Each structure stands twice: as C-alpha cells, then as structure tokens.
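Cross-posted from the bioinformatics board.
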Amino acid sequence: MIKDNEYEALEKIVGSQNISREPVILDTYAFQWCAELLNVINDKPPARYYLRPAAVILPSSTEEIQQIVRVCNKYGLKFKAFSTGLGPWNCVSTPRTIQIDLRRMNKIVKIDTKNQYAVVEPYVSGAQLQAEVMKFGLNCHMPGAGPQVSPLASATSMAGPGFTSASTGFAGRNVLGVEWVLPSGDLLQLGALGQKNDPDWFTGDGPGPSLRGIMRGFVGAKSGLGIFTKVAVKLYPFPSKPEWKISGESPNYKFEIPNYLKFYIINYKDWDALTNALRRFEEEEISFMCYYASRGAICASFANSREEMFSYYSIHTRLKRPLTLMIGAQTEREFEYKKKIVEGLIQETGGKDYTKKIKIRDVSYAEALRCLLGFHGFLITGCFQSTHGGMDTIEMAIRMAKLNAPIKRKFIEKGGIADDQGEGVWLATYERGHMAHCEMPTMYDATKPESVVGWVEYAHACDELDLKEHLGIPFFIEGDKQHEWYGPHCMNYHIWLRKIKEAFDPQNIADPGFYITSKKTS
Amino acid sequence: MTLELKKLADYKDIMERCIRCSMCKWIPQVQIKSWKYAQVCPSIDEYNFHAYSGGGRMIIALSLLTERIGYSEELLNIVYRCTACGACAVSCKYLNDLEPLEVIEALRKKIVEDGEGPLPAHKKYMKLTEEVHNPYGEEPSKRLDWLPSDIKVSKNSKLAYFVGCTTSYRRKEIAIATARIFNKAGVEFQLLGEDEFCCGSPILRAGGEAQVLDLIKRNIKAFKERGIETIVTSCAGCYSTLKADYPRYVKHDFKILHTSELLEQLLKEGKLKLKKEVPLTVTYHDPCHLGRCSEPYKEWHGEIMEPIPLVRFPVPPLPLRQGTYGCYYPPRNVLKAIPGLKLVEMERIKEYAYCCGAGGGVKAAFPDFALKTAGRRLEEAIDTGADTLVSCCPFCATNLQDAIKANNAPIKFYDLTELVLKAMED
C-alpha cells in the first residue's frame, strides 16, 4: 500500500493524470509475458499475474525521475522502471514498489551520422530508430526480442542478442554514453558525456575507470541499480541499399527486396559440419546475419500461420543442421564477390543450399531486417521462453546445444513442454564469430498449469547442466536465490555483485528482485 | 473472428494468451517508416498507461472476469476511452491470433448487461435512438430536410440510398452531393425517409446488444418490405454495421455498398464521367469502419485439434479478420480518376490507418479526446504536403472538420462525393 501523503508527493511531480493507484490500472502492470513461470519458480501457483505495483507513474523527463527517486528514498518506497516492458523482469518484485513506466520519454535525441551513433530515450522502439537512421543509410543493432522493444533497455539492462549479431554485436557492445539516475536520485553521466567541457556521447568510457561493466555487466541489473534515461548506441552502415518499399495488406505484405541483399538456408549433415561452416563463413567476414535455428524454427520463422508452418513438414524432415545466412552489399561488385564466397564455402564445407526449397517470401527480408523473425515462435503454442543460454565461443555454443537435446527430450516425454524433438535451439555468431550466443527457446502453454510447471522443471535441469558442464555465462540467473546458488560455483561473484549494490543502493530503493539485494539494511 | 456471437467468458483463453508484447500499440512493425507515425492506438497515445492499449484492455477484461477487480468509475472510463477502431487487432494478428477488439466489444456488452454502463452520454443517445430513431434526437420528419427539390428519387428502385443519421442531420452536403451524382449518372435510387432508422452502430459500439437486436430486425424487415436488394451508404459506420455486424444477428442477402464502391463501378461502366479539373493535392483518410472493420465475419464449424501436444490447431483454419479485405481501393481509384487532382498518401493508411478519433462512442462521451486524436491525424495529413483532406465517412468528416477549426489548420476537408461532384459539374 502506498500512503496518501506518499502518493501526493509523487503526484505533485507528474500531475494527477500521470499517476495511478487504481487496481484496474495496476493489474495491467502485474500481467506479463512469462509471469506464470516466475510464480512457479518462486513456489507460487502458475498465475499469469505477478505482484501489483503500489502505484504506476509516468514521468516525462530525467528531472522528474530524479524527484521521484528522491521521494522514494524519503518514504522508503521502492521503484521499478521499465521502458517498452516485455518479460517478467519488468514486474515489481516486492510490496510498496512503484512502477515507473517510461513511455512518455520517447524521443530520439540525436543522430550523429558522421560518428555513427544515435541518442535515444527509453520508449523509442527499435523499429522507430531503425526507420530514422535508415534515412541516412545507417542501421542499428535490433534486440532479438523484436522491433517493438526499447534499444535503451536492451543496451543498458538486458543481454541483448539479436539476429544481426554477426555484424552488429549484442546490445552490451553497442552502448556508448549513458545518462543514469542513481538510486539516490543523483545523476551520473558515463563516458564522454561526463566531461566538463564539451560533453558528448561518443564513448561510454571516460578517462577514469569504466562503469559500463557495473552498469550492465552481462545481462544488466534490470532497474536494480537505478534508471537509465538516455543512451547513445552505435550505428552501422545499412547492409544494402537503404530502401523500404512495402505494399499490400496485412498479412500479405509485399516487400521490394532492396538491391544487394540475399538470404541463404544451407543444410549441414551434423553438428561438426555446422561448427566448421559457422567458423568458415565468419572468417570470411561476409555475413550480415549468421545463425543456426533448428529445423522447426526455420519452418516457423518463414511461415505466417500454423497451417503454413506445417505445410513445410516435408522440408522439415530433410533439414538436419541448417545455417541461416544473409549477405548484404553496397554495390553490385561487392554483392557478386560475396555471393561467390558463399557458393565456394557451401562447396568447401559440404553444405546443401535449401534456400529455394523453403520459399522465403519477400516480406521475410523485411522481417529479418527488422528483427521480427523470432516472433514467429509464438505461432506454435502461443508462448515460448528460453530456459537457458550462454555466450562464449562457437564450440561452447554447439556443445551446449548438443548436451541440451537429451535433457529436453526427457522433459518432452514427461509432457510439460512442446515437442520440438529436443532440437529447439537458436545459436548466433557475434562479431564475425569471435563469440557465439546459444539459447534454448522452449514452447509451452502459458494457460496450462502442468505445462508451466513442466517448463520450470526443465529449466532447473538446464541450470544444473550449465554448472556441471561449464557452459559459459548463463542467462536468467537473477535475484538473491539464484545468485546465492550459482555464485559459489563461480568465484563467489555474487558477493562482489552485492558489494556493488550496497555501494550504489544500500537502502534497496531500486527493486532488487531481478538483480541482488543489499544486505546492509537487513 | 467468426459469425458466432460470444460472451466475454468465451474469450478467456484468448485473454490469457496475451503476451503483453505491445504490438497492439504500433502499426505492423514492417510498416514503420518513421519515428513520428509509428504508433497506431489513439487511446494509449493520449492516456499512456498500459491499461489504455488493446492488450491492456484484454488484461482488464480478464481481471474483471476472474474477479481480481470489480467495477469502478476508472474502469468504465478506460473501457470507453477507446474508439474501437480495431487497429490494435490488425497489428496483433499480423503474427498472432488474439482478438483484442472482440474482447473490448464483449467487455462493453458485459458492462451493459451487468447494468454498470454504458456512460451517461451513451445512454442518452441510446434513449434518443429508441424514441426518434436517431442518436441526435432530431425529428424523424426532418430526415429528408437535406433533399433539394430538383433531385429525382425513385419510389420502387431496388437500390436504396441509406443516408444515415449523421449525413441526414449533420453532414447534409454529403447527402446532396451523393444524390446529385446518382442523378447525373442515371442511378435510380429510393430513400427511406422517415422509415430510415439508425443502423444501430452507435448502440452496438457502446455495448447495447439487446437494444440493437430489435433495431436490426426492424431495419431488415423495412428493407424487405420495400423490395430493396442493394443498400448504398455514405457512412462507414452504417456500412460495416450492415455488412459485418448484421449477419451475426440476422442473416440477410442484401448487397451492401459504400458510395465509393458504387462510384468506382460507375466509372468502370462509363456511366460516371469526370471531366472538370479539380486542381487539389489531396490525402485520403481511411475510415476504420470502411476499411479494417468492414471485413465480414465468417462461419466456422470446426474444432481445435492438438496434433502435437500443446500445439493448438484449428481444423479447418480459423478465419481471422486481419483488415486484409477492407474497402481501400475504391475511394483511391475514384480520386485518381478526377482530372487535375494529385493524391499523396499519409504514412498510416488502409488497414493500419490512424483513427480520426470519433468512433466507439468517444465523440459523445469524451469530445476533448476525440478532438485531440483528430488533431494528430490532421498533422499527419498536413505533413504530406496536401492542401486537402478527403474521406468517406460523415462521422470522420465531423470530427476532422472540428479539429481543423479548433486548430486553425491549414488544410481543407471534403467528402469524396463533393470532389466527384466538382469534377462532374458543367
């Protein structure tokens, strides 16, 4: 519960129309994608709702956020911020926590075409940013969660892999200058933005020690260390001619594929051949996108209905270890060069070109550029989530996929999760293959308790596997319980993480539920 | 989705399957071409809390149904501060099969059935419609006051011009232009006059299902008694109600046409000749109920199979109303046939057009919100460089013209028929 005087203090900052404690509004913030998983993980029934916030507030500026945070400090309220808000980690985790919805902070502050970066506020979506930077022949890293999510949230607070990671890295690689409201309400400006004279956004590292690792590390603090109000992200040349011509009516859109862009689906007989192919394609530095998705995922990502997806079944059975590749070029000559490299590498690596058999629609190119292919995963059971994931080398990612399959099959047989033959894997190279990301999208039915429980049981087994087989840095280790279990296996990192929390937020004002709790006050 | 009428409880599974992805707030992602015109829901654009989105309202409906929340003034305001324009449903169904618009409509019906709504402004026009057959409270005897004496009207044509309440009483210029075009093109038509009752759209959008059923039955009977086979409407709301909603309650075999469709047909047949130059740069606003909401519901008799455990598979496939087959091209084709006229498009068009802000009972209950939304649409129209905004719906016309006046906006407004008439004049 929030007391009247506390509510009034917040109301003074944003005006009565931008704050609410009405249950009808609060409930819409308690309902989240995968909240039912979080409930089961925390030994509760698999409800689609998590905790209701004490109030929801909609600030419009950094200054208002600072004032809100100071009010929270004054009254012992906690806060939890989110941008576009997709996923259970956007929920508040403890009572007397206010939800700070950053929707009103939605401006593209700056596009620096010369130095190739853009400065955005929290509620700018990936699609919005991409559409604007394309006008200058540029592109941005699009978070894998889809074009509707916030690049700021991805850059500052989430892992942020994406379908184009081969050429655009992951979100953590793209963050430059940052404006950060600390749990005290003070403002911290990272990197070049913090310079006294002529501050700018071009780097996140200042002359002193970098704070980017503290700010986000691998997966981000998810508002557990404050609120990020502006961020500069790197931009890249658009992979082809920056044209976006689309016609027709939903869902039958026709996309005029820009010059010098081409998809390939190349089938490999086994994991070893795929590993070699991933390495070789990336050594040649030709890909815009380069990833492995299981055969079922291939069928889903190029279909726009379940019926169409199942119509690909005959192809599905013939695909073994398909590599999805997209190349782009600025000139005909560059395009021809890259196509020749691909053709040569297909031969060299023993692959078979399945591109024409999948019948990739022209709009799939638009969806690929806009990072919408992953969203097709929802077609199958209506819901999916990755149980675990890691980022390390190509070899580690492949090993993770191989080791995971028999465990997944065991849980499929139990009946909780959908049958993908244990093969549901998304594995993307990063930065020309220097790194690779692997995660295990797992389909379940969010409305069936036994399915939700089945997913969680399988996820626990995956976490055990990560520890036993040292499978890189895992996703989804969040909150005290998980960190305290995982930390002792990994140099007791959780003790250091807690020291950071205690240094920045000794009172636990920033909701620690998806980060770690300061123990100083307990 | 289907012809079958459902109660809110029937949508529970759909509500529970929302993933809160927020696609419903944006135009389909592959259509986004700028920061400025990426969003599609007037309600969340104005009020910002997630509750004001298509997905948010599905969560509210689920919370109400499962008794997590009860009725409150705030709940009613949120449910009715929605133009029921259906843009959320188009964006959701690009890659999903949920039905946010149907849930919103079912929620409004439940509110009325439970005696908790609609809002006073809606109750007022519902009562007036019952009493004088139009929501404005105008005298039925004045329904044909717009009709100039030189217009020829047939008494027994099988084609009826269903003028609609807003056109008859508030946008008479549209009725006059339409009738003159019909005369010039040799289209015989009858008018129902006092016998023309409201189509029921405003009542239906507010959730008054019980009241609208009698009206539908009465109107269908009146059409049959007059030997009508084809009904032509000026109003997008009348059009979608007659074409898409009526068959859900009472099956009929009337051919429902919007004036733009008939004009396109007349152009193709050479009966409509547009010779006079109309030197305007125009942009066209797609009315929601002429476009995405006019798609008929389809019958579906099947079952949800699970060929693979947990994979739900409707057999045969469920028909989805995705906005694919709305009336988008007839108005554009007619505009393109006008000599000297240049058509420039806004960014948000056809099935992902931004609503004018008037529909769903909003103009009556929340006029300021309606006006602000129209202002946003005007800004988009002005950004095209057009000097004229054209549409095909008297309700859109009213709200957009109100906004032009309120904002002193540098753009003119015409109904399509007015421009066609200009191009026909000797």
